[in-house]
Design brief:
Length: about 500
């Protein structure tokens, strides 16, 4: 079957050729790289083109060499470069093998990546020494494990020890650059710096272009004519096509329509702009202090929305609004049976506190202090005693649970209001585990700040919150708001802005 795929696909045939001009890059591969890399790949490739023999095996797609950190952050990264020749140095497989025994998200990602590679190896007939198509699609990428083509001479010439794993990965990329234009993809900044110093194109991996700068905020300010604003207030609905830019918005995005001193707040549903109710939403006595919080509460209190992502810097009110909306709908409206709060056990700065005494509840108590603080902010007198009494009362009645994400495997969450706090510290694989636990009548809210990530191998583009925002965009049951205004205190606002 593999021989047939190679024969049917023109780009995998062996042919005599002269070195291609450096600026002729194939379109399928260029579409998977950032604009900066696409622009500079050809320029850096000119350094290596002279070293290529005139007769060689020409695999038309450019070479993409993956580092271990990429497969840890995104175990399915081999499928992210359509039309390219993906190369995994044997050193990467060795490093994944060393990480697979870890009992955390890193170990799970390593095991997943190894299983994906092993599945392809079996489909290839037992070896990935030769490029193997990832699928039957003619535009599919190929994958092979590079063993011997490591440019040790160039490494040693630049004073890099070839026995160090990172240097061997760079050496493998240097070897590939003698065959075709090559890009080394890594989430390790030091490795990228060294690779660029040796003339390679080096790029960070952004799964599906999910960098923070590429993500929408869930709301936008648009200019509209007076007639549209008046019609929106009188009819409570207007066609999104009537406002320039509104037709690009997803379901459950919000728009602030302005015309001079006139303005209107609207929400996008099925291609229409629907004006928000003049009555400001309120949850457990909490009223929004700005427009982003108003938009967030609209989503949190809407029974039709099942999955919500609240992103924003510290102090913007993400957690307290989620908790308030949960209490409102569990205790007051009886819409859900319980409020279930989950948090990842990731210490700030990786300074772990070690083993904690007591039972499970006592061990989790330090990690749940942020939830206690949120409930404290919702009490009338801001009393710690009142907050503790409320938590104990709701817990005894089965209306509130505080748990770690660790214990979600195998669960089925029915009729619950679920809050997953600090979601930016979760792996995308954990996101899938959580969402597949959600049963009928359950609403799940993910909160987090993608600029404050404590988990290793995580970045602004490959954490669970960023992946969710990109993957679920446009779904009728999903809503996302990025909160920008800090409301905690003047000190918190200055720290978030200046630091």
């Amino acid at each position: 079957m593999r021989q047939k795929n190679f024969a049917n696909s023109k780009k995998f045939t062996e042919k005599l050729h002269n070195n291609p001009p450096p600026l002729q890059l194939e379109r399928p591969c260029l579409g998977t790289l950032s604009a900066y890399v696409a622009k500079h790949l050809a320029q850096s490739d000119a350094h290596f083109a002279a070293d290529r023999p005139n007769v060689s095996l020409a695999l038309v797609p450019q070479r993409i060499v993956l580092d271990t950190s990429v497969l840890i952050a995104d175990p399915t990264a081999i499928h992210a470069f359509a039309g390219c020749a993906v190369v995994i140095p044997l050193t990467v497989v060795e490093e994944l093998d060393g990480l697979k025994t870890r009992m955390d998200d890193v170990g799970r990602a390593a095991r997943t990546a190894l299983r994906n590679i092993e599945e392809l190896r079996r489909r290839a007939g037992g070896s990935l020494a030769e490029p193997t198509p990832l699928s039957d699609d003619p535009d599919s990428a190929t994958l092979h494990i590079e063993v011997n083509n490591v440019d040790r001479e160039r490494l040693e010439h630049h004073g890099l020890d070839p026995s160090i794993p990172d240097n061997r990965i760079i050496g493998a990329a240097l070897g590939q650059s003698k065959i075709a234009p090559t890009c080394l993809v890594s989430n390790d900044a030091a490795l990228r710096i060294k690779a660029a110093h040796l003339g390679l194109t080096a790029e960070e991996h952004h799964p599906l272009a999910r960098a923070s700068s590429d993500r929408a905020m869930g709301w936008v300010t648009l200019e509209a004519d007076a007639a549209t604003v008046d019609a929106l207030y009188s009819n409570e609905v207007a066609e999104a096509s009537a406002v320039a830019g509104a037709e690009l918005l997803y379901n459950n995005n919000f728009a602030i329509l302005r015309h001079g001193s006139q303005s209107a707040l609207a929400r996008v549903r099925d291609g229409e702009l629907r004006v928000l109710n003049s009555n400001t939403p309120e949850a457990w006595g909490l009223r929004p202090r700005n427009k982003e919080q108003r938009f967030a509460l609209e989503l949190l209190l809407d029974p039709a929305i099942s999955v919500i992502a609240l992103d924003g810097r510290a102090g913007t009110g993400k957690t307290v609004m989620a908790i308030a909306a949960g209490l409102e709908q569990v205790v007051e409206h009886r819409r859900f049976e319980r409020l279930a709060v989950y948090r990842p056990l990731v210490p700030v700065g990786r300074a772990d506190v070690g083993f904690l005494p007591g039972g499970l509840e006592e061990k989790l108590d330090p990690w749940m202090s942020a939830i206690h603080d949120a409930i404290l902010a919702l009490t009338e007198e801001r009393s710690s005693r009142d907050a503790r009494s409320l938590i104990e009362d709701l817990t005894d009645r089965g209306q509130l649970t505080l748990e770690s994400v660790t214990f979600l495997r195998g669960r089925s969450l029915q009729g619950q209001f679920v809050v997953v706090d600090e979601a930016q510290n979760l792996e995308p694989t954990t996101l899938k585990t959580i969402l597949t636990r959600i049963g009928e009548g359950t609403k799940v809210v993910f909160t987090g700040d993608t600029s404050q990530i404590d988990a290793p191998y995580m970045g602004e583009s490959n954490n669970a919150l960023a992946v969710l925002i990109h993957a679920f965009a446009g779904q009728s049951l999903f809503g996302h708001i990025t909160l920008a205004s800090c409301e905690r205190s003047e000190v918190a606002s200055l720290a978030a802005e200046l630091l």
